[in-house]
Amino acid sequence: MKSFKLGLMALALVSAGATLRADDSKAKCDAACAADAGTCPVTAGMAKLPKLSYMVGKKSLCCEESAKAVAAETTAKVEYVVGTEKFDSSDKAFASLVTQTEKFVSAFATPSTCSVSGTTTIAGECLACSVAAGEVATKVKKAMDSVAISYKVGDKSCNCPVEAKTLAAAKKAKTLFVVGTEETECEQTARLNLARAKYKAALLAMVPAKPETKAVVQ
């Protein structure tokens, strides 16, 4: 959870000791959110994942620090929003974010066939051919299966949670959950990192390969 909150503060683009004005914070927050948009299909796909946002009265913000600054000026409470759900605490909202993200990624990778049209939706594509849909499903599954959590205890790394627990007890050390380059002590954050990494791997697998260019011999 600690690493998640630090990530939110980084999105606000302010230092920990800075004095925040609500308008400035919101402007920086909006700029940070806008920076996430792009024409890259992977970037566009990642932008569809569930997000945690904040409501202060009727104002919606994407950064916790700017939301707190607005709340301090208006004496209104900060509400934590994930999708259509609202929460009164960041812990409850984060737990919902993890669950909703995992469900989103699972649905993205699960073929769904319409009983009326017969078309199959998989990985954001609607396909009339069942063979093509099966090929896409196989490609997506292979990409997602290539991403997994590993564990680090001190200078030891392993892929088994039971082994990690044994090492942690023997060394009296904390277990780090590792997904790619992301490391965290929080199991919930690790679940979120894993879901996002699997989804990104699937998106990358769906990007058409660039045609090879042959060198022109002079």
Q: Give the helix/strand class.
A: alpha+beta
User: Main β-sheet, in a few words?
Assistant: 4 strands, antiparallel
Number of helices: 8
Q: Tell me the distance between the termini.
A: 59 Å
Computed over alpha carbons, the radius of gyration is 21 Å
Strand content: 15-25%
Strand order of the largest sheet: 2-1-3-4
- Domains, number: 3
Q: Work out the number of β strands.
A: 11
Shape designation: flat
Low-confidence parts, pLDDT < 50 over ≥5 residues?
2-26
Helix percentage: 40-55%
Name the average pLDDT.
83
Helix-strand topology string? HHHEEHEEHEEEHEEHEEH
Oligomer: single chain
Structure description:
It is a single chain. With 218 residues, this protein is α+β, with helices and mostly antiparallel strands. It folds into 3 domains: 1-107, no CATH class; 110-142; 146-207, no CATH class. Helices cover 49% and strands 17% of the residues. It has helices spanning 2-11, 22-34, 41-46, 64-74, 90-109, 130-145, 161-171, 187-206; strands at 52-56, 59-61, 78-82, 85-87, 112-113, 120-122, 125-127, 150-153, 156-158, 176-179, 182-184. The strands form 3 sheets. The chain has a 4-stranded antiparallel sheet with strand order 2-1-3-4. Helix 2 (22-34) runs antiparallel to helix 4 (64-74), helix 5 (90-109) packs parallel to helix 8 and helix 6 packs across helix 8. The radius of gyration is 21 Å and the shape is flat. Mean pLDDT is 83; it is low at 2-26.
